[in-house]
Amino acid sequence: MTSSTPVLPSARASMPEIWKRSLIAIFGLGASFAAALFSTVTRDAGNVFATAILAGGSLLVSVWVGMTTVPYLARRVVSGVRWQDSLDFEVTRAGIVYVLATLLIGVAALNTGNNLLYLIVSTMLGAVLVSGICSSLVLRGLALHVDLPQHVFAKENALGSLELRNSRRWLPSLSVSIVPPKERRVKERWRAESATFGFPPMRPPERQWMSIRDIKIRRVPDAPLAPTVFRGTIHFALIPPRSSAKSEIELCFQSRGLYRQDAFALVTVFPFGLLVKRRSVDVAHELVVYPAVDATAELAQILPAIASDLSSLHAGPGQDLLRIRPYETGDSARHVDWKATAKSGALKVREFARDEQVRLRIVFDNPATGQVSAESYERGVRLAASLAWYFAHVSEMVSFVAPGFRTSSDVWEFLRHLALVQPSADASFLEDLKDTGEFNLIVTSQPESGVVPAVRSMSRFCTW
Q: Quick check: 11 pLDDT over 70?
């Protein structure tokens, strides 16, 4: 038996990134300081060209470290959601051009000593500060409400909605967009697993001289995250104070399964488009997408045969007329319909329906892992879902059975099970299936011989 326990805490998974950012900041600021010192030496020596290059490089490296490394390190240190949100920003292309222009003017101001150039540089730097403050104010006081549909089928369009409410009393919010959060990379963690140390190591276990229990440490990736529900972008130009803006979103999923949306991000480039301010909003939502239930050629071939089997089972002793059919050997003479016989010129008999109708049981036999291909498995799940959806609308006397699923007459519970089902390790489900007097519609990848004779005689097999 193999057991695994984490050796390193999860917080250490990001330590290499922190060290890398810290070293970049140290070396970057050190290089900037050295360039500033050498620019002073070249200025005293009268070398204007070298002075301009060194001074400009010093400013450029300082700004680059300040925009890329310092906010990341500050977010790792400070506590509180408000402080972390205020430090979450990115520089746009227009902002990069703006910063470069500011650096050029700053270098010119240092070389010429012109007070007007110093005033222009101060004004341009103040505009960056004003941009950051205004963007933070725009995103403050906003609340997001997500409305997702209750039932969604794969490959079918569904409508949801996102509502953004401004709870502030006086200030409006301008140019706000709702986007998905940044994708997280799948991290690897150190884990300890039990192992066996044998000597000599190159021999088979039975020919080794000694065998000692050991512990092996290796890096394993975390479990992959569930796919997200929302991937687009919604933009609101204006949200007045104490009001809300709502937008519908069209959802379409290509495959069944569980989709999860843990958070959204509110972003704005207001007022100058120099910085992209981002604020994360936690709204945990899960959406189960059922398998597609649209009509297929395979379903069209199966339904007539099933209808014929059910029609023959419904015939029996009763008072309600089921149909009028041609006379067959063994039919009672008292069931002869003389009017229909006279009209058609052939002997016709009346067939009556049973007083108690036969119940239908849809059985999904989940194959074992590796027994069928992934494409064939999805085709079987889709066929079971389509049959369940069809008979749930045409008959009230239907139930559903599957491995790991309790018998139920609720089609939504069965569809949810099919949406999340994966290949099973138990391959003896049909052998243990009991005869309950119901007509069984069995969706399976196994031959009919795996079913007990009593169940086989009252079953229609849909093999994929």
A: no
Question: C-alpha distances in angstroms, 169 versus 136, 165, 454?
Answer: 16, 12, 73
- Token pair for residue 14? 């990001």
pTM of the model: 0.64
Please, what's the largest Cα pairwise distance for the chain?
Answer: 128
Angle made by CA atoms 122, 124, 128, in degrees to the nearest 5: 110
Any idea where the domains of the chain sit in the sequence?
A: 9-139, 142-185+225-290, 188-221, 297-318+356-463
For residues 274 and 94, is the Cβ–Cβ distance under 8 A?
Answer: yes
Cβ–Cβ contacts within 10 Å for residue 292, how many? 20
**Rg of the chain taking only CA atoms, in angstroms:** 36
Tokens of residue 345, six digits: 């010129």
- The first and second tokens of residue 412, run together, are 């939504």
**How far apart, in whole angstroms, are the C-alpha atoms of residue 445 and residue 378?**
12
Cα–Cα separations (whole angstroms), residue 82 to 237, 279, 282, 348? 24, 9, 14, 85
Ramachandran angles phi, psi of 415, nearest 5°: -65, -35
Helix (H, G, I), strand (E, B) or coil at 402: strand
Nearby residues of 396 by Cβ (< 8 Å), 6 or more positions away: none
Which two three-digit tokens encode residue 279? 């604020």
Q: How many helices (H) and strands (E) does the chain have?
A: 11, 19
Higher pLDDT, 334 or 206: 206
Please tell me whether residue 24 adopts helix, strand or coil conformation: helix
For 365, how many CA atoms within 13 A lie in the half-sphere containing its CB? 25
Q: Rounded CA gap, 151 and 411, in Å?
A: 12
Q: Which two tokens stand for residue 195?
A: 């192992």
Q: Span 142-185+225-290: which CATH code?
A: 2.60.40.10
CA–CA distance from 313 to each of 124, 348, 354, 399 (Å)? 86, 20, 9, 17
Rounded Cα distance, 125 and 106, in Å: 10
* CA–CA dist 419, 427 (Å, integer): 20
Token couple for 262: 């843990």
Strands ordered across the beta sheet of 398-402 = 405-408, 398-402, 360-364, 439-444, 459-463
pLDDT tens, 411-458? 899 999 999 988 876 666 777 777 677 777 888 877 665 565 656 666
Check: CB of residue 171 under 8 Å from CB of residue 238: no
